[in-house]
Write a structure and sequence with these properties.
Structural class: alpha+beta
Oligomer: single chain
Distance between the termini: 16 Å
CATH class: Mainly Beta
Order of helices and strands: HEEEEHEEHEE
CATH architecture: Roll
């Protein structure tokens, strides 16, 4: 995650919440907000979710997703495509858990239904105000 990775990490950290877009079983696009926990050095975005979330049913059928970050005040707009999967990662749960997450996950970090949504970035681009176009930040080939 070289070149545009640092800019991407800084912009995402400033915005925090993305709209996660999945495809449902009728081929409709579905969006819902997700709070970004981390963009790691391997080009993976991490989020909390629950096993009974409809998005996980959708991801079982098609794990390709889009994440959109937008901040109109700073004119920062980011589009990320990637592949998503739910994983158990107790270490990450512990590391990223904070009391603010209880609003969405009231049973806490030890809830057996809580899992980590892992999105491996395939492509990331951001709006470039100078050229009024999207600028590629990251492209990763052959990601499953």
């Amino acid at each position: 995650m070289e070149n545009g990775g640092e800019k991407l990490r800084d912009d995402i950290a400033a915005i925090e919440v993305a709209m996660l877009i999945t495809i449902d079983d009728n081929h409709n696009l579905r969006s819902r907000p997700v709070h970004t926990l981390q963009l790691d050095g391997a080009g993976v975005l991490w989020f909390f979710t629950t096993r009974n979330s409809p998005k996980l049913d959708e991801l079982e059928e098609n794990n390709h997703v889009n994440l959109c970050y937008a901040d109109a005040n700073s004119h920062t707009y980011i589009s990320i495509t990637g592949c998503a999967v739910c994983v158990d990662d107790e270490e990450r749960k512990e590391k990223f858990w904070s009391p603010m997450h209880e609003a969405w996950f009231p049973q806490g970090k030890n809830d057996p239904n809580l899992c980590m949504l892992k999105v491996r970035i395939r492509h990331a681009e951001c709006w470039d105000s100078e050229t009024s176009s999207m600028k590629e930040l990251i492209r990763v080939e052959n990601v499953i």
